[in-house]
Amino acid sequence: MANSRFGYVREFEDYDRLLPSTFSVVRIDGQSFHRFSDTHQFAKPNDKRALECMNSAAQFVMEEMEDVTLAFGESDEFSFLLRPDTPLYDRRKAKILTKVVSAFTSAFVYNWSRYLNIPLAYPPVFDGRVVTYPLPKHVRDYFAWRQVDTHINNLYNTSFWAIVQQGGKTEREAHKILQGTVSAQKHDILYKDYGINYNTLDEMYKKGSVLVRDPPPLPEVPKDGAYKEKKRIEKLRKDGIDGTRGSVQILHVDIIKDDFWNQRPWLLAQ
Ligand code: GTP
Ligand code: MG
């Protein structure tokens, strides 16, 4: 950038950086997707095509940004995990956040017609935030929080729309029927009243979408102490396995229990 007497205005720029050696999660969310999904006649409660279009946009983000090692999506939101020592954009928050939101949004629009055969009625908008998490435990709990949310919402929404669509009740009546019910009662309503076995529904609806890169999961190792675990991660890194290379896989698996993380120790390596 050429120097001029106007260059001093750069001094006003605010360089807000991610904390060093800290995990970061960018979460994006569709703006007013209640309206967007109605306008585009999304199937209720889950529109497979729309969810796959979301996944394709997240895959593009990961292909654009190799330091994103994991993504998790449900409904109109996606979370992206950045490895703790990413040097991306000199760790400037605004640049990282805007790149994720912009890459995701444009890929969503770009891929739309591959998944949905209804024309886009207006441009979808996504907002985003970035949060730093100092410990692997925070990262685990963050993603568990999102997947629990997926489960709770999906069970509620599946029951709600069964009562409305199959049961012929109004939305107000459906709310009332479900008010105060626990999970087992919703399973019962679905099975007994509507013949729906919740457990057999599409895994993408129940668990959300999990994007990681090859290599395929390693065999699970017994818990062998912090030192050996550290050595194992060092070796993986030396072998070039740090979650930043390889093709992106789209999975619908449990990320609350230990297995997923034990099979991919690089995700939580510090
Ligand atoms: P803001 O995010 O606050 O702007 O509002 P929002 O309308 O986007 O609501 P929110 O993000 O809380 O929830 C997402 C909404 O998107 C859901 O409530 C649904 O209405 C809609 N949605 C997301 N995925 C689907 C889907 O697969 N099918 C249908 N029918 N609707 C969906
Ligand atoms: Mg939204």
From TrEMBL:
A Pfam match: Thg1
Catalytic activity as recorded in UniProt: a 5'-end ribonucleotide-tRNA(His) + GTP + ATP + H2O = a 5'-end phospho-guanosine-ribonucleotide-tRNA(His) + AMP + 2 diphosphate + H(+)
Signal peptide start-end: none
Cofactor notes: Binds 2 magnesium ions per subunit.
InterPro entries for this protein: Thg1_C_dom, tRNAHis_GuaTrfase_cat, tRNAHis_GuaTrfase_Thg1, tRNAHis_GuaTrfase_Thg1_sf
Residues that bind Mg(2+) 2: 29, 76
Biological function: Adds a GMP to the 5'-end of tRNA(His) after transcription and RNase P cleavage.
Similarity field: Belongs to the tRNA(His) guanylyltransferase family.
GO molecular function: GTP binding; magnesium ion binding; tRNA guanylyltransferase activity
Residue sites binding Mg(2+) 1 per the record: 29-30, 76
Domain Thg1 C-terminal span(s) in chain numbering: 137-257
Keyword Metal-binding assigned: yes
Highest taxon listed in the record's lineage: Eukaryota
Annotated GTP binding sites: 29-34, 75-76
Cofactor: Mg(2+)
Keyword annotations of the record: GTP-binding, Magnesium, Metal-binding, Nucleotide-binding, Nucleotidyltransferase, Transferase, tRNA processing
Assigned EC number: 2.7.7.79
PANTHER family tied to this protein: TRNA(HIS) GUANYLYLTRANSFERASE-RELATED
Entry's Gene Ontology BP terms: tRNA modification
Enzyme type, top EC level: transferase
Domain tRNAHis guanylyltransferase catalytic: 7-134
Protein name per Swiss-Prot or TrEMBL: tRNA(His) guanylyltransferase
